[in-house]
Amino acid sequence: MFNLFLLQTLNGLQFGILLFLVAAGLTLIFGIMDLINLAHGVLYMVGAYLAATFTAYTGDFFLGLALALPVALAFGILLERLIFQRLYERDHLDQVLATFGLILILNEGVKILWGAAPLSVPIPDILSGSIPLIGNMRYPLFRLVIIGAGLATALGLYLLVHHTRIGMLLRAGASNAPIVSALGVDIKRLFMLVFGLGAMLAALAGALVAPILSVEPGMGDSILILTFVVIVIGGVGSIRGAFVAAIIVGLVDTLGRTFGPILLRTLMDPAAASQTGRTLAPMLIYILMAAVLFLRPTGLFPVKVAAR
Length: 308
Prior knowledge:
This protein is mainly α and about 300 residues long. It has one domain. It is about 75% helix and about 0% strand.
């Protein structure tokens, strides 16, 4: 049982890291720009497709990843310049409708360019093995690399936000964007930087997960829902909140799906416990979100935002 718990804890940590990479950019976009971007999950999908394409072209996953990230950054900046900058002054309903339409357009665009059939990305040979943990239990090396890469990215993002001038502007913009603009900061350039950074982080998550999941149209839709849950729990605009909430959500979702049916077997017969567990497990993170909203309506680590 302990081996299973350790295995699923690592899976939950890996899932949480991926959620953080997607949520980090989105929480900054929402916190600084006051923009509801439903199309953020599409950038996760685009990152996976770019990684699959460049890996197939170069024959090397790491080189494909190195090529995919700047292209994703450029794609994000292009979207911001062409579409999103026209939505900053619009109300949230307009933003929701426009970005939902963008989801449909980009999903269809992916089908036109790559087809509707799922793509696969091979795990690099150097990372295809597994390492021993406890006893006979082994864990895939590539999944550990995802965890390590995500933690390194989180550390780099922390240093950027808290120990650089750009980070100072980002934190100031999240707290009071109008004042930052009044002090002479080019707010349009700041918005472009935030959006491009968020696009690249989401693309990084998609690229990292491409070798262990199918790359297919619409793959970003489900993770977008969980990303908004992470932002609500962590606090809008808070990188620290996004990290803590993503890890919590990843662990609760993974451990709940595994151990929920096992715990229910102590109360009911195995067949009923299995069925009930499968039904209740996906609800756990939403119950958690409701509890956090009840106790701390602004999230675990809220950022003070001036009235806009």
